[in-house]
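Design a sequence for this backbone.
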């Protein structure tokens, strides 16, 4: 983000703006709109949601006139999210292994009900972790595609300038 007395702040700050930026014209997004909830009984497609959110965030961040692409900042965001997937999600999933295998402490209705509720909660938590990882992975994959597109566009501009003899 640029402004009076400020230089480019990079993609990370662009993706975390306060207040949020308006969607870019032609992005198909309406300011203040939210996605429709999935149909009942249908699990959400977290990969699609993550990719869509990355595109929306990037469109909003790059819609102002002073925005500049910062490959180092983009790489830092990508690395941070990949580290989260590799470390944080893996650790949470490893710790959640036993959350749906709880045995009742006694052979009576109360203990059995407790174990059933705890196991159901464990299953839901594991499902949440899986969805969160899919969402984040898709978000990262989309950022990588955006970064690659910018890098290829920059390389194409450099190649075009070389062809007309403007740079060596």
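Sequence:
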């Amino acid at each position: 983000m640029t402004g009076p007395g400020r230089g480019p702040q990079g993609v990370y700050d662009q993706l975390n703006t306060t207040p949020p930026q308006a969607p870019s014209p032609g992005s198909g997004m309406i300011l203040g709109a939210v996605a429709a909830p999935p149909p009942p009984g249908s699990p959400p497609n977290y990969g699609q949601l993550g990719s869509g959110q990355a595109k929306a965030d990037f469109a909003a961040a790059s819609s102002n006139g002073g925005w500049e692409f910062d490959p180092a900042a983009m790489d830092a965001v990508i690395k941070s999210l990949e580290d989260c997937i590799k470390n944080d999600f893996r650790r949470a999933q490893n710790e959640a292994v036993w959350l749906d295998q709880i045995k009742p402490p006694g052979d009576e209705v109360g203990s059995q009900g407790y174990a059933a509720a705890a196991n159901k909660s464990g299953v839901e938590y594991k499902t949440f972790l899986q969805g969160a990882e899919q969402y984040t992975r898709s978000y990262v994959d989309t950022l990588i595609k955006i970064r690659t597109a910018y890098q290829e566009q920059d390389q194409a501009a450099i190649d075009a300038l070389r062809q007309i003899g403007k740079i060596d």
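The first helix runs from residue 10 to 15.
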